[in-house]
Design goal:
It contains 9 helices and 6 strands. It is α/β, with parallel strands linked by helices. About 19% of the residues have low confidence. It binds zinc ion. The site of zinc ion has 3 residues, from loops.
């Protein structure tokens, strides 16, 4: 009788142990009561304020038609698109230091000095001697020969000379002259690969000193309007 009690007691103990370790099959899992969780409101939808163009627009390639055929200034007399005869490196700006003038007048004056003719590659008229804003192309550009304008051999040989009619120690170029200059410089920079750092005034390169292209010449306006 005592042995039977011991077996029953041992069996009961095993059952309790098994149920403690493995749980009881068929019983529902009891979960602790859930606390109420207050979630923050969802963030507002994000708005992309900066819309970037696709990468193909950001990168200029040699296939860009403007690279091989840059836009030209509108009022031009002479052969602006003459074939290039040398590696032009600079653009040198001048004023005529006179109220009036044009390519023909400067041509005569410079011949009188014993030169081949007008020393610049381009003259931009101001309405006093030629139509305001007209670009006159001289024989030096058309024949791609050395200039006679810089007072410096390097800049006469590799610099494109542009003269604006006027005296910019006292006055400013006309609005049409500036439009023409910006168009011409943009065209020449693209066509000849002249960097903006190489756009200089006569005063920056002449050995001996000069005010040219004038103390009031609007450099800031020019550089702010260039495409490069
Ligand atoms: Zn000059």
């Amino acid at each position: 009788m005592e042995a039977a009690w011991n077996r029953a007691f041992a069996l009961a103990a095993v059952c309790v142990l098994v149920s403690l370790v493995f749980g009881c099959a068929g019983t529902e899992k009891v979960t602790a009561p859930q606390a109420t969780v207050v979630l923050p409101p969802p963030p507002p939808p994000r708005i992309n304020r900066v819309v970037l163009p696709p990468p193909s627009i950001l990168v200029s390639t040699p296939a860009d038609p403007s690279f091989s055929s840059p836009p030209k200034p509108t009022d031009v007399v002479g052969r602006l698109d003459t074939p290039l005869g040398r590696r032009w490196k600079y653009i040198v700006l001048h004023h005529s230091a006179s109220d009036a003038g044009n390519e023909a007048i400067f041509n005569r004056e410079h011949k009188d000095r014993g030169w081949l003719g007008v020393g610049y590659d381009f003259v931009i008229d101001n309405g006093q001697g030629g139509p305001d804003g007209r670009v006159e192309v001289t024989f030096r550009w058309e024949q791609q020969i050395d200039g006679a304008h810089a007072g410096n051999e390097e800049y006469n040989k590799y610099g494109i000379g542009i003269c604006l009619v006027g005296n910019f120690d006292n006055d400013l170029p006309t609005a049409k002259q500036m439009d023409a200059l910006v168009g011409l410089v943009n065209y020449l920079q693209k066509r000849c690969q002249v960097p903006t750092a190489n756009i200089v005034g006569h005063c920056h390169v002449r050995i001996g000193g000069t005010h040219c292209p004038g103390l009031r010449f609007p450099w800031y306006e020019l550089f702010s309007r260039l495409e490069h």
